[in-house]
Recover the amino acids of this structure.
């Protein structure tokens, strides 16, 4: 066990994948010499060479489009999109090509490409640096969409994503890059929780609180605060946003009878809407209250001095939890 | 900058000697045969669409020389990335034409193994494949393979796409072994090249730092020689080349299009005099490299190809409904790879099964 930041854990996971499979590559803006603006790829080019860790021209569609070509040639590229708000120029390549290639070719062309995207707010950034675009990709069949939440899981998840034969959109909670925790870098990957499964991070009996990415920590803190008030909150880290692990979610809600979903992305047509619909279908006779959602408002991401009002924090999440007990 | 157009065979079928573009040991009769056959399969596909057997067809009429000439310059290991009109390239790569028919009939989305014929899947979103070709070429570099190159096909309209510019930039800075083959057929559906660019297309390469050349796209020998030279340069580590094959789309954009709304019949007639097949026929006849029996034989082959293609088209079964759910994800253990999708598949099978039970009663 070593104590690592989330950023460092991703770095170690990437390094391990690069070392274990000569076909794995990293490509993106400033990922080589600089080591990425968040230093996630720090030192990898120095140790593995410019052919394996490629500083690309500054064009997101080019990064993903050439990664697709490399994957067609048998490589496993890991692309870094520098910030969430910069992924849109690559949307055509992701949605029209990357996601559909296996389906349209009837399995003859697999594209094992990982696209890493630091996402979410809370770092006081300028515009386009704090967004949560996950639902665009979750709505696109053929992509696996995942979000990591803590260092130990990030270390395993990035390796699982690279090993996946499907394209994976890999969201990293940028305001948690500096969170530290124990990571077992000696553990075999086969022991890791599969990429498409949710995980219960805090057991409870009264209400199920679902989240992913940066808000998992906030939800854990909310659960601890609720514990002190005598209310038992079960927190589930969804991990996989597409496909969703509804088996884990429904089993929990069937037991607790209440469900709250928290994400930074706007509530409107967000992932919470999909989950609420499915929970209602699958747990109708167990529900004591409607499924509640807490998240961003139906506005563009605000400027930094307003973001504390936009981002769901511990109090807003607890407020939603309280409201489910009003029914 | 000059706008020289490389030509090795005039519209009248006269050979033009160009020592800088050697032909080598070239099979001109074979080129003629290929062009006649692909024109015939193309016209048969148009007829099939008119008869309701295909949803759509994008005709290559007029572009036979550009496609056959460039494709014949490829070595067996070179990889081609087509747009959606490269039926002549597909033919030269050995792809059974019925694979193309399947896509335009709607039996599938264009499904073949790209590595089997070194011919990638058709790409409909304009210009996307230029980046795939460049990435594939970067893979060749990483494999340290010295006898492989890539060719990316696209049209004049595609040169306005960001992805094509990005591919030019990428290929140039990484010195990737890729040839960009632009068939300038004068139309992006209705828009002329002047609406895409203020400079001739081939000249755009110089701004990216690699050579561009314009070739008579209706001259199969020139298309062959120019492409061969560019591919050799790519294999030799000299980086990319942009080839602009100056040609003309004699047919409609696709079977849904009406070109009379945006071009004059006289313009089409003028280009008919520059027909890519007629000039080779004139050359072969005059030099006595081919006789009447040869031409008759090729015509007979073309008719046979068309009949075979028609029969194959009509025999294509509709895919089974439950195949809807296949190959969205890498599957494991009989599942679809997604529990969400598994549930949808199960539900829809049960729904369809309900009708079967009703029918049995």
């Amino acid at each position: 066990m070593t104590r690592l930041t989330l950023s460092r854990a991703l770095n170690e996971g990437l390094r391990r994948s690069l070392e274990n499979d000569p076909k794995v590559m990293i490509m993106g803006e400033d990922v080589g010499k600089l080591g990425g603006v968040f230093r996630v790829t720090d030192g990898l080019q120095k140790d593995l060479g410019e052919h394996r860790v490629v500083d690309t021209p500054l064009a997101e569609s080019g990064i993903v489009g050439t990664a697709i070509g490399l994957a067609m040639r048998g490589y496993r590229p890991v692309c870094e999109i520098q910030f969430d708000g910069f992924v849109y120029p690559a949307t055509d390549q992701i949605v029209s090509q990357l996601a559909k290639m296996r389906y349209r070719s009837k399995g003859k062309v697999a594209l094992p490409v990982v696209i890493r995207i630091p996402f979410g707010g809370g770092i006081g950034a300028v515009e386009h640096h704090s967004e949560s675009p996950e639902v665009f990709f979750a709505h696109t069949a053929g992509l696996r969409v995942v979000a990591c939440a803590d260092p130990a899981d990030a270390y395993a998840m990035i390796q699982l994503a690279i090993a996946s034969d499907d394209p994976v959109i890999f969201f990293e909670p940028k305001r948690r890059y500096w969170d530290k925790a124990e990571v077992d870098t000696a553990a075999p990957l086969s022991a890791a929780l599969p990429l498409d499964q949710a995980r219960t991070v805090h057991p409870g009996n009264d209400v199920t609180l679902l989240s992913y990415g940066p808000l998992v920590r906030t939800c854990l803190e909310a659960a601890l605060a609720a514990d002190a008030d005598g209310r038992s909150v079960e927190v589930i880290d969804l991990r996989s946003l597409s496909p969703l692990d509804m088996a884990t979610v429904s089993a929990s809600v069937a037991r607790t009878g209440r469900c709250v979903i928290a994400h930074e992305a706007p509530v409107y047509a967000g992932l919470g809407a999909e989950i609420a619909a499915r929970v209602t279908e699958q747990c109708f006779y167990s529900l004591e209250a409607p499924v509640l959602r807490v998240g961003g408002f139906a506005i563009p991401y605000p400027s930094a001095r307003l973001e504390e009002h936009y981002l769901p924090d511990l109090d807003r999440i607890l407020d939603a939890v309280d409201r489910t007990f009003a029914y | 900058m000059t706008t020289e157009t490389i030509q090795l065979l005039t519209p009248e079928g006269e050979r033009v000697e160009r020592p800088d573009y050697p032909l080598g040991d070239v099979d001109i009769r074979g080129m003629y045969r290929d062009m006649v056959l692909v024109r015939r399969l193309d016209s048969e596909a148009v007829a099939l669409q008119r008869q309701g057997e295909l949803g759509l067809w994008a005709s290559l009429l007029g572009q036979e020389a550009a496609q056959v000439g460039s494709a014949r310059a490829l070595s067996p290991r070179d990889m081609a990335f087509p747009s959606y009109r490269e039926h002549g390239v597909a033919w030269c790569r050995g792809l059974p034409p019925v694979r193309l028919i399947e896509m335009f009939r709607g039996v599938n989305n264009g499904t073949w193994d790209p590595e089997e014929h070194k011919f990638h899947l058709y790409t409909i979103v304009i210009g996307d494949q230029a980046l795939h070709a460049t990435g594939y070429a970067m893979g060749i570099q990483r494999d340290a393979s010295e006898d492989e190159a890539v060719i990316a096909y696209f049209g004049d309209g595609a040169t306005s796409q960001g992805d094509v510019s990005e591919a030019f930039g990428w290929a140039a800075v990484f010195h990737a072994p890729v040839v960009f083959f632009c068939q300038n057929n004068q139309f992006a559906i209705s828009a002329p090249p002047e609406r895409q660019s203020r400079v001739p297309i081939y000249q755009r390469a110089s701004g990216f730092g690699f050579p561009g050349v314009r070739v008579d796209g209706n001259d199969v020998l020139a298309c062959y020689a120019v492409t061969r030279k560019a591919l050799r340069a790519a294999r030799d580590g000299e980086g990319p080349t942009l080839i602009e094959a100056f040609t003309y789309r004699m047919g409609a954009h696709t079977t849904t299009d009406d070109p009379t709304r945006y071009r004059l019949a006289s313009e089409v007639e003028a280009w008919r005099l520059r027909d890519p097949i007629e000039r080779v026929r004139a050359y072969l006849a005059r030099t006595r490299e081919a006789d009447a029996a040869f031409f008759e034989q090729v015509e007979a082959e073309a008719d046979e190809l068309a009949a075979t293609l028609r029969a194959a088209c009509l025999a294509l079964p509709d895919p089974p409904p439950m195949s809807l759910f296949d190959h969205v994800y890498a599957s494991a253990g009989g599942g679809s790879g997604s529990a969400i999708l598994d549930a949808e598949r199960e539900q829809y099978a049960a729904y369809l099964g309900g009708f079967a039970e009703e029918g049995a009663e």
Q: What stands out?
A: Chain B touches chain A at residues 108-114, 120-121, 123, 125, 128, 130-143, 162-163, 166-167, 169-170, 173, 326-330, 337-341 (CB under 8 Å). The first strand of chain B starts at residue 5 and ends at 6.
